[in-house]
Design a protein that fits this description.
It is a single chain. Helix 1 packs antiparallel against helix 2. With about 140 residues, the protein is α+β, with helices and mostly antiparallel strands. Helices cover about 25% and strands about 30% of the residues.
Length: about 140
């Protein structure tokens, strides 16, 4: 499978974009590859490394705990630490997607306003379009 990165950053000082590709060649490779892309809007100067920290927590959680679900728990732990430090600027301003691909099995999750597009045989499918309302209680806490 071919993977490529395309960066296009608008000239606005209030947002950052980044993408992260992790395709290990060692024994970790048995777990598959991780792909992440994110945007943080309305950033503050101290938020410049936020996306790097979030992606690192996912990578560390995935390859240490060997589970995509555990990797997402690691991401939630990172967000909790940021909140306890007083940084809540990411709330409502984070758009982030994480994908795991191993042996033609795709796991993914997203937060915020970001699309996950699958291009196959000339068709473009937004595979994340119906995720927003699934498994949500009528009155989430």
């Amino acid at each position: 499978m071919k993977v490529f990165e395309l960066h296009f950053n608008p000239k606005k000082d209030d947002r950052i974009f980044d993408s992260f590709i992790y395709e290990p060649e060692s024994q970790e490779g048995q777990l598959g590859n991780l792909y992440m892309a994110g945007e943080l809007t309305k950033i503050l100067p101290q938020s410049s490394n936020f996306l790097n920290g979030l992606s690192s927590s996912i990578i560390d959680g995935y390859y240490q705990k060997t589970s995509f679900q555990e990797a997402l728990k690691g991401a939630n732990g990172f967000l909790e630490k940021e909140t306890k430090k007083g940084d809540v600027s990411w709330l409502g301003n984070l758009n982030f997607a994480t994908l795991n691909l191993k042996d033609s099995i795709l796991n993914f999750t997203k937060v915020g306003n970001i699309k996950i597009l699958l291009i196959s045989e000339g068709e473009i499918l937004d595979i994340g379009q119906n995720l927003e309302l699934q498994d949500q209680d009528p009155y989430p806490l």
